[in-house]
Sequence to fold (357 residues):
Amino acid sequence: MSASASAPARANLIGEHTDYNGGYVLPMPLDCATTVTAKRTGRTGTVALESRTLNRRAEIAGDWSRRGDWTDYPLGCLVMLRGRGIDLPGLSLTIDSTVPMGAGVSSSAALEVATLKAVRALLDLEIGDVEIALLAQRAESEFVGVPCGIMDQMIASLGRGGEALLIDTRDLSRRPVPLPDGHVFAVLHSGIAHKLSESGYADRRRDCTEAARLLGVATLRDVASGDERVANLPAPLPRRVRHVLTENARVLATVQAMEANDAERIGRLMLESHASQRDDFEVSIPEIDALVDAAMRHGAVGARLTGGGFGGSIVALLRSADLDGWSRAMQAGFPGTSLISPRQVTPLPPLPLKGRG
Ligand code: GLA
Fold:
């Protein structure tokens, strides 16, 4: 008997670096996903892993400790299930994925959530989708060693195609938000790999924890927007706090604009968010700033860096009719880039054949 489950990649539309500050996020699932197929093998204590995407296999018997490679993501999930008191049989897990790695669209959360959901289905476990997200986040932070927030695992576990999800990361309450009519969010990978474990992500997180400590609050979500003490924090903490506070307000304003189908306003908020990531939170890089500028020159309604930063992808809001022309212009101007989503873009017309007839 076998069981399969899939989980999508994501683009965060707005609300960056707010999830580990108790704030709001607005991610959307993408049309690429990771699928895991789980089977019982009868060899208790042993996990056979195969990644068809990487063309790699590994067999882990007995010692389930961190190995420092791709196997850590599925193995970390199994370790979390065991930690929850679940008796695991011998398992084989096969991974297939259309999610690009290092593009900042959370291939890791897709793999974790697909693993947990496949094992849940195989063993008929009673674990809800929110708990799946929490187990996946613990696998990533405690086992893999990346101190991520909860956004990626929540959208990978609960996201539905065709809508964004507003998540309040303080209590994990959420509500679906409609995408603007006649428009599309396009995700373009810069070609510069973003690697959470090696980036300044942990440094930024530390800045936020330190600012919250100095201000005497549990998370930066609890700081009032007019709090005058923020300006007296040591540099660069005032800028970091300003990003988090203004970004939370922008998420709520974007939700209103999406519900009012006001694409122009969404676009303006995306640009403000990008500027705040660039200037206050300092997680952008010049190559990504150049992509955002070019995206606007080529007709986008709004654009911003999406995900953890220091490379990765931009998300751009476009009128649907502009998608083909925009993506061609971007890829012509920046040959290292690739369009990750939407995947169904009209192919270039065939070149006229020469020298025949
Ligand atoms: C990464 C993390 C998320 C979130 C974003 C930044 O994707 O995994 O938890 O912090 O960066 O918004």
Notes: The chain is about 35% helix and 25% strand. The two ends are 57 Å apart (CA to CA). The longest strand covers residues 27-40.
